[in-house]
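input
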Amino acid sequence: MLSQQGLSAYASHPLLRAVSIDRTYYAPMDRSGFQRLASEVPPGFRFMVKAPAECTTPYVRHAEGLTTAANGRFLDPGFALERFVLPALEGLGPACGVLLFQFPPQGRWRAGDGPRFASRLAAFLEALPRGPLYAVELRDAPLLTDAYADVLREHGVRHCLGVHPKAGPLARQLEVMDATGPGPVVARWNLNPALRYEDAKQRYAPFNRLCEEDPGTRAALAEVCAAALGAGQAVHVVANNKAEGCAPLTILELAREIVARS
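output
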């Protein structure tokens, strides 16, 4: 029932106006799949869509998670355009909100070479069509460099504020976002920074209440969201059940904080 009716039920709520499609990170979705999702939501609803991991993972991994070879599709704009950007744009139409490139941990030596990463990212973004709202989320705090911010600013791409233990302090991410100039806010409140994913899953199930509220993160996100809305910018925020225990209630409390600051 959740699979068949969950999206339309969720989208009928007046506060919940967006959702993140994460399944595309594990395998590309074709245009018809996106069209089906778009048909289940009302006008004004927006999707945040994650790019396939083939775009953002430098290595091929086997079932046990160990690397086996270099990934030839890593930062390949042709693959990204054909298997991600165009299907999402054509399938979702006006419901396409954010096209997100989430970079998982890149490995010690790659994460330690911020200029090289920024240079490769620049070449990748340069080859993508302008127009869609692109965002980048990093899971390596050392890559949050001034060069990275310069690349995003030059290409009109937003840094996605990722609340995750590996993403780096939110304060540093806000500095990077500010350095890219004014624009939409994109944020993903993913995980309690003090926990691992599986630990949070066991601790918070069945995800029907706020188990461990994070007022510091809520205040920081509310402040940046209120400022952006006041400046006429769009705001796209999604939350995970592993953030505080119940994603819809996390969004509800964040919305209340934004209103209070507005």
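quick obs: The longest strand covers residues 96-103.
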